[in-house]
Design brief:
Elongation Factor Tu (Ef-tu), domain 3, 6-stranded antiparallel beta barrel, 35% strand, elongated
Length: 284
């Protein structure tokens, strides 16, 4: 004998006995739809997306550098100082040859060496032989510093004076150490080439790194690096001063600037308008 569960349903009356139809109240459906609509409106107004510009720069003194030069062409026979050395006024920094004569080159200022020519390297009249950041002979970093940054054409179009900038050493991770708060004080709209960057920073290595591979022109952006209000000798870090992180002159840094922030509704409208414009151009 078969079980009752195996009996075949043979009439509509038997189906009604086995099935139960459940109806969802209309007010629950309306409430769910209202909640979804409210959530969408809140998301549209409070949610946002932002456009960001990424570029690079170098920590540099506000007062610039002092170039030690000679009024004649010659050759550096021996360089007696190196990048990062402290020098004082009157100190012998190199031995040079001009024609058939040999002489010693002395520093005209106190400060920190950031760039030098090398031994047996020729120089032209008034060509920088040694570049020095004027200041304390101990090499102490002045309080006023800036970031001399360079952005590509696409990024510089959206950058404006007064925008905030996030700056951190390029060999560190921003999510781990945070960033220094900065503010854009100048955007040079005239393009600079490799020679311009090299002359500005007094360094072939930094110029090559800032230009990158295949990039012929860049645009200079000056960023004021803000100081900690409670300690003017330290930078204003987002997570507090990190340990073992150097921001000395010449430090190569990454920069992030939020150029525009849109609500989700604005973003959807802009995206739709752009797509419509592209379709229109396609079929014209």
């Amino acid at each position: 004998m078969k079980d009752d569960s195996e009996k075949i349903v043979q009439s509509p009356e038997q189906i009604a006995d086995h099935l139960r139809v459940t109806y969802v109240p209309t007010y629950l459906l309306a409430a769910a739809a209202a909640l979804l609509l409210a959530a969408f409106i809140v998301w549209g107004f409070l949610g946002n997306v932002s456009d960001k510009a990424y570029y690079s720069g170098v920590v540099f003194p506000v007062q610039g550098t002092t170039d030690i030069t000679l009024p004649n062409n010659g050759i550096v026979r021996s360089m007696l100082v190196h990048n990062g050395d402290s020098v004082h006024e009157g100190q012998t920094i190199a031995m040079v040859s001009i024609g058939n004569s040999h002489s010693f080159l002395t520093s005209t200022v106190n400060g920190l060496v950031i760039s030098t020519k090398t031994g047996n390297e020729p120089f032209e009249a008034f060509d920088p032989i040694v570049s020095v950041i004027e200041g304390n002979a101990s090499g102490a970093q002045p309080q006023r510093t800036q970031l001399v940054a360079y952005a590509d054409n696409e990024a510089q179009r959206d950058l404006r004076v007064g925008m905030e900038a996030q700056v951190w050493p390029a060999d560190e991770k921003r999510d781990e150490i945070g960033y220094i708060r900065g503010r854009i004080t100048q955007v040079v709209r005239y393009p600079a080439n490799a020679a311009d960057v090299r002359q500005r920073l007094k360094s072939d290595v930094l110029a090559q790194r800032l230009l990158g591979e295949g990039q012929k022109v860049v645009y200079e952006v000056i960023i004021d690096l803000q100081r900690d209000p409670s300690d003017p000798t330290s930078y204003d870090w987002s997570f507090g001063q990190p340990d073992d992180v150097s921001m000395d002159f010449g430090t190569y840094c990454s920069v992030l600037t939020e150029t525009r922030r849109l609500s989700m509704f604005q973003y959807l409208f802009e995206a739709s308008r752009t797509r419509f414009r592209n379709l229109k151009l396609k079929f014209e």
